[in-house]
Amino acid sequence: MLKAAVIGVGYLGRFHAQKYHQLPNVELVAVCDSYQSSADAVGHELNVRACYDYHELFKQVDMVSIAATTNQHFAIAKACLEQGIHVLIEKPMTETVEQANQLISLAEEHNLKLQVGHLERFNSARLALDPYLDNPVFIESERIAPFNPRGTDVNVVLDLMIHDIDIIQTIVRSPIINIEAYGMPIVTPLIDVANARLTFANQCIANVTASRVSSQMQRMTRIFQKNAYITVDYQEKKLSLYTTPHGTTEQQETGMQLQELTFAKQDALLEEIKAFVNSVENDTPTLVTGVEGRNALSTAAKITALIQENLQIEPMPA
After folding, report:
1. Is the overall model pTM greater than 0.90, yes or no?
2. CATH number where 77 lies
């Protein structure tokens, strides 16, 4: 039986611990947090050992989830990989691309699994999308949410937009050749609303918007390709497929045909952790690799830098 621990058991880490605790082929050995009250509370809830220093886990576990704050990710993951421990690390995987590259190299050097927690990849609507994709030419994503103090240790690009950056890059699978980006702080010192336009080498264009100061929650991607238009609603777990009829002029005049597919609201985090456990148990590739996590982080960092650069521009005189 694989032995696991969760490092960082605040809001999200607590859920990680609960999922490991459910799996029959995993023993949740411990939960760890430098805030003793958090570790104690989750340890008591799940009847497992609580610890306050992740170094105590070395030689005791095969795998960990790291759900600490982003500025702690690199140091914790590096130490765990150097100790031969497989790592599932929440997004954004690190603060810098260089740190991400170091973790990728360490995992390869020690033949360990490094999975990045891009949870939306395990959304049932996203999992069903691939068979319908055919060389998208324009993608529009919108991810907006009411303000929540949780997650504000990073800007909205790294907090929310990075989900769509990751999905779009895996859909298009072409290098980005140009980025335009705009955004601003609203209620925190960091960027709270952002919009980016990504141009890919294959001429696909993606327009991506994220906000964490909205009155409602919406997570939607619209994909345009020849003879088809696809809407992915991550919140409602639904695909809407609009296709142009082929055949006679009479058939074509009926307009685009709609097919709607709705999927079960499965536990995406449980599926993510099951996939990580499976990759460790069977020595198979992780479903969200360190390289993919690094690539999403790289684009998010470029968008952030462009927005910060634009914010420093003095307004033109009247």
Report:
1. yes
2. 3.40.50.720
Structural domain that includes position 57: 2-112
The answer to the question of residue 278 being in a domain is: no
Question: Could you report the per-residue pLDDT of 7-28, keeping only the tens digit for each?
Answer: 999 999 999 999 999 999 999 9
DSSP string, 136-166: -SEEEEEEE----STTTTS-HIIIIIHHHHH
What is the phi/psi pair of residue 276, to 5°? -65, -45
Say whether both 180 and 160 belong to one domain: yes
Q: Where are the beta strands (DSSP E) in the chain?
A: 2-7, 26-32, 49-51, 63-66, 86-90, 114-117, 138-144, 176-184, 193-200, 205-211, 218-225, 228-233, 238-243, 257-262
Same domain, 183 and 95: no
CA 10, 284, 21: angle at the middle one, nearest 5? 35
Of 194, 193, 157, the closest CA to residue 297 belongs to 157
Residue pLDDT, tens place only, 189-230: 999 999 999 999 999 999 999 999 998 999 999 999 998 999
Alpha carbons 171 and 243: distance in angstroms, whole number: 19
- What confidence tier does 246 reach under pLDDT thresholds 50, 70, 90? low
